[in-house]
């Protein structure tokens, strides 16, 4: 099967390509755009598809494997990007590949926006207790 | 081992201030790991960080930010992001500021004007914040009231004076922010 992105790769123009986007095969946006800097990623322990069969990973690049290795311990998007030495936007594309395959689990940050009512008191109390131990 | 398989919840606090005022220093003082650095591409023509189509034509810049983490419990991690020194960059970086619990402005009394942009930014985004006056070597010649007046701070915004290199001061600044957040009325209604 030809990966869908290979259709577009040649049009990008090698001269203007920002080098890290070669890792993403020329893609400049992730499949899903709901990752934030502090979305927490965890490598799936025993990934299964919807039929309960073990997931057979598709084509993985070295960077994908590095992410899966790294995220055995949960890590935020910013931490993964830092460890890989890649810009955040490039990292998000690779992360989205793995989440789409069920190999990586993503946890969105807690909602604390003031417009949505702000952080709840239980969360703030937990943060305060943790800070006091510093 | 099993607990490490469950992703903790994450929140973030922003550390802003003018160039060289001590943002990364404060992150390092309270973080459980040495400050990490990450980079992002931003285009001046675009607000969304993911919209880099046509990257060759647009004026693209790379900005770096330093960050650290504080594990509050097995289920909760606080990330501290030192914002890029030049505010014109982080104005464009929605992902950095969206969903922040709150912010810190670090200021230096010898050049308070460098913190105006950070204060304006938090106020315009409705992000609660505290102000930390960084006094390396106890170098502060102004009273808190003078500083408040110079920064045109609302009376309810906490102001602390200390040395951001020292963990106890950094901790107190963050605690003041959390207390401030707890004192605020819910924004809805």
Automatic annotation (TrEMBL), chain A:
It comes from the Bacteria. InterPro entries: DUF742. Pfam families: DUF742. PANTHER family: DUF742 DOMAIN-CONTAINING PROTEIN. This is DUF742 domain-containing protein.
Automatic annotation (TrEMBL), chain B:
This is ATP-binding protein. Transmembrane segments: none annotated. It comes from the Bacteria. Keywords: ATP-binding, GTP-binding, Hydrolase, Nucleotide-binding. PANTHER family: ATP/GTP-BINDING PROTEIN-RELATED, GLIDING MOTILITY PROTEIN MGLA. GO terms for molecular function: ATP binding. CDD domains: Ras_like_GTPase. It holds the Pfam family ATP_bind_1. Belongs to the GPN-loop GTPase family.
């Amino acid at each position: 099967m030809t990966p869908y992105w290979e259709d577009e790769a040649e049009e990008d123009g090698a001269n203007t390509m920002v080098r890290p986007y070669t890792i993403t095969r020329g893609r400049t946006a992730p499949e899903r755009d709901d990752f934030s800097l502090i979305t927490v990623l965890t490598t799936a322990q025993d990934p299964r598809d919807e039929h309960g069969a073990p997931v057979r990973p598709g084509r993985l690049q070295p960077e994908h494997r590095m992410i899966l290795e790294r995220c055995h311990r949960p890590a935020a998007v910013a931490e993964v990007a830092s460890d890989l030495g890649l810009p955040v936007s490039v990292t998000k594309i690779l992360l989205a590949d793995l989440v789409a395959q069920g190999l990586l689990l993503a946890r969105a940050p807690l909602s604390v926006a003031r417009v949505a009512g702000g952080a709840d008191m239980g969360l703030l109390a937990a943060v305060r207790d943790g800070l006091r131990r510093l | 081992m099993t607990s490490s398989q469950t992703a903790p919840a994450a929140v973030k606090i922003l550390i802003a201030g003018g160039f060289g005022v001590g943002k990364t220093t404060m992150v390092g003082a309270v973080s459980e790991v040495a400050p990490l650095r990450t980079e992002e591409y931003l285009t001046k023509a675009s607000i969304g960080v993911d919209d880099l189509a046509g990257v060759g034509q647009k004026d693209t810049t790379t900005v770096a930010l330093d960050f650290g983490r504080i594990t509050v419990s097995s289920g909760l991690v606080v990330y501290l992001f030192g914002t890029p020194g030049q505010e014109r960059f982080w104005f464009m970086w929605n992902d950095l500021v969206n969903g922040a619990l709150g912010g810190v402005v670090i200021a230096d009394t010898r050049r308070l004007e460098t913190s105006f942009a950070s204060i304006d930014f938090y106020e315009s985004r409705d992000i609660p914040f505290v102000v930390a006056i960084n006094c390396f070597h106890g170098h502060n010649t102004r009273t808190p009231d003078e500083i408040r007046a110079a920064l045109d701070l609302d009376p309810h915004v906490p102001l602390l004076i200390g040395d951001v290199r020292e963990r106890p001061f950094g901790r107190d600044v963050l605690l003041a922010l959390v207390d401030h957040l707890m004192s605020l009325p819910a924004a809805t209604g």
